[in-house]
């Protein structure tokens, strides 16, 4: 039960965002924001090419895990209103 | 948790806190030894009739009391740096939990799978059950699985707060607009208490943190029951 293999998550199942070497320090604000942007950019690009947005799900899972719910709600509201400051 | 007439740190719950505890013992011992030596020398100076008014140089003793402090400082610095680097090791957390500071309560979000979030208010003193701790108990505790690295992301919805749990060696500021990461690993199950550590208004002293570390199965059952 305590072997290394048994403690690894089952292959392919989502647990939690892995360590991202682009954001190695205490301040993870950019990690959350970058993945939020990347998700929306990915969806926009895939839709433009008529492809499935399934690969974009990774970015969704990461920002959903990392970003506070209130931030996500605020940004989604801004996107709807057309006032979101990021480039998507 | 803290207990009356406590002199030292609370019992360590995480491996890092154990290291910090031992380092503190080591350094404090050095400090006591130096202070005792100095006080002894001062008392000797004040209680002797011997004098020596023609001292010109003292090369040998000057060398010793330069080299010896340097060695002592190295003996303090090396363990300190070792722990510092240990705290920054890359580890892959098994779970991510967000905590947002508000005036005057904490809210917790577990969004790896479903969206589970709840507020954690202090239990008023008038509502305490017998045996509960005054100003430390909350209505909804943060339940976490033990013996697994957990990523805590700490932020605030209004003013500065600070999320602190002494027995885990954690204190991380909650800053609005910023997401601060702290990694938490508990070696044992139990209840671990902390208090808000950044002045945030009238009820700053009344927004405690209680972590309940449980085995993984219990944690999974708790998650299902909270959803």
List the helices and strands and how they pair.
The complex is a heterodimer of chains A (88) and B (227).
Chain A: H1 4-7, H2 29-49, H3 57-66, H4 69-81
Chain B: H1 15-46, H2 59-87, E1 95-102, E2 105-110, E3 116-120, E4 142-145, E5 150-156, E6 161-165, E7 170-174, E8 180-184, E9 190-195, E10 208-214, H3 216-226
Parallel strand pairs in B: 1-5, 4-10
Antiparallel strand pairs in B: 1-2, 2-3, 5-8, 6-7, 9-10
Catalytic activity (chain B): 4 Fe(II)-[cytochrome c] + O2 + 8 H(+)(in) = 4 Fe(III)-[cytochrome c] + 2 H2O + 4 H(+)(out)
GO biological process, one term (chain B): ATP synthesis coupled electron transport
Protein name (chain B): Cytochrome c oxidase subunit 2
Strand fraction of chain A: under 5%
Number of alpha- plus pi-helical segments of chain A? 4
In the CATH classification, which architecture of the domain at 28-88 in chain A applies?
Orthogonal Bundle
According to DSSP, the number of beta strands of chain B is 10
Number of helices of chain B: 3
Going by CATH, what is the homologous superfamily of the largest domain in chain B? Cupredoxins -  blue copper proteins
Query: Could you name the CATH homologous superfamily of the domain at 28-88 in chain A?
Result: Cytochrome c oxidase, subunit VIb
Major sheet attributes of chain A: none
Distance between the termini of chain A: 45 Å
Question: Can you put this structure into words, describing what you see?
Answer:
The complex is a heterodimer of chains A (88) and B (227). Chain A is mostly helical and 88 residues long. Chain A has a domain at 28-88: Cytochrome c oxidase, subunit VIb (Arc Repressor Mutant, subunit A). Chain A contains four helices and no strands. In chain A, helix 2 packs antiparallel against helix 3. Chain B is an alpha+beta fold. Chain B folds into two domains: 15-88, Helix Hairpins (Orthogonal Bundle); 95-226, Sandwich (Immunoglobulin-like), CATH 2.60.40.420. Helices cover 32% and strands 26% of the residues of chain B. In chain B, strands 3-2-1-5-8 form a five-stranded mixed sheet, with no helix packed on it. In chain B, strands 4-10-9 form a three-stranded mixed sheet, with helices on one face. Classes of the chains: A mainly alpha (88), B alpha+beta (227). Chain A binds chain B through residues 9, 14-19, 24, 26-29, 31-32, 64-70, and chain B through 90-96, 98, 100, 109, 111-113, 115, 117, 151, 153, 155, 157, 172, 177-182. Chain A: It holds the Pfam family COX6B. Chain A: Component of the cytochrome c oxidase, the last enzyme in the mitochondrial electron transport chain which drives oxidative phosphorylation. Chain A: Its main location: mitochondrion. Chain A: InterPro entries: COX6B-like, CX6/COA6-like_sf, Cyt_c_oxidase_su6B.
């Amino acid at each position: 039960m305590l072997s290394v293999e048994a403690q690894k998550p089952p292959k392919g199942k989502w647990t939690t965002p892995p360590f991202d070497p682009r954001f190695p320090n205490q301040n993870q604000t950019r990690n959350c924001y970058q993945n939020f942007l990347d998700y929306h950019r990915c969806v926009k690009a895939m839709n433009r090419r008529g492809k499935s947005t399934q690969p974009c799900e990774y970015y969704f899972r990461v920002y959903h895990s990392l970003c506070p719910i209130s931030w996500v709600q605020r940004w989604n509201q801004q996107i709807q209103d057309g006032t979101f400051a990021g480039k998507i | 948790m803290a207990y009356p007439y406590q002199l030292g740190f609370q019992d360590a719950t995480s491996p890092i806190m154990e290291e910090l505890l031992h380092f503190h013992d080591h350094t404090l011992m050095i400090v006591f030894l130096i202070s005792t030596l100095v006080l002894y020398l001062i008392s000797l100076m004040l209680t002797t009739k011997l004098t020596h008014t023609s001292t010109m140089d003292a090369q040998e003793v000057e060398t010793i009391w330069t080299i010896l402090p340097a060695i002592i400082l190295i003996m303090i610095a090396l363990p300190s740096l070792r722990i510092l680097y240990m705290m920054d090791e890359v580890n892959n957390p098994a779970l991510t939990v967000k905590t947002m500071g508000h005036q005057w309560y904490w809210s917790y979000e577990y969004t790896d799978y479903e969206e589970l979030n709840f507020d954690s208010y202090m239990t008023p003193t008038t509502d305490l059950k017998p045996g509960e701790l005054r100003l430390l108990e909350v209505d909804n505790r943060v339940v976490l699985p033990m013996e697994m690295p957990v990523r805590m992301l700490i932020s605030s919805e209004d003013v500065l707060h600070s999320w602190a749990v002494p027995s885990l060696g954690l204190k991380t500021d909650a800053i609005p607009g910023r997401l601060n990461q702290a990694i938490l690993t508990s070696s044992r199950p139990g209840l671990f208490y902390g208090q808000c550590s950044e002045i945030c208004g009238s009820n700053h002293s009344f927004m405690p943190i209680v972590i309940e570390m449980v085995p993984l199965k219990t944690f999974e059952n708790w998650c299902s029951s909270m959803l």
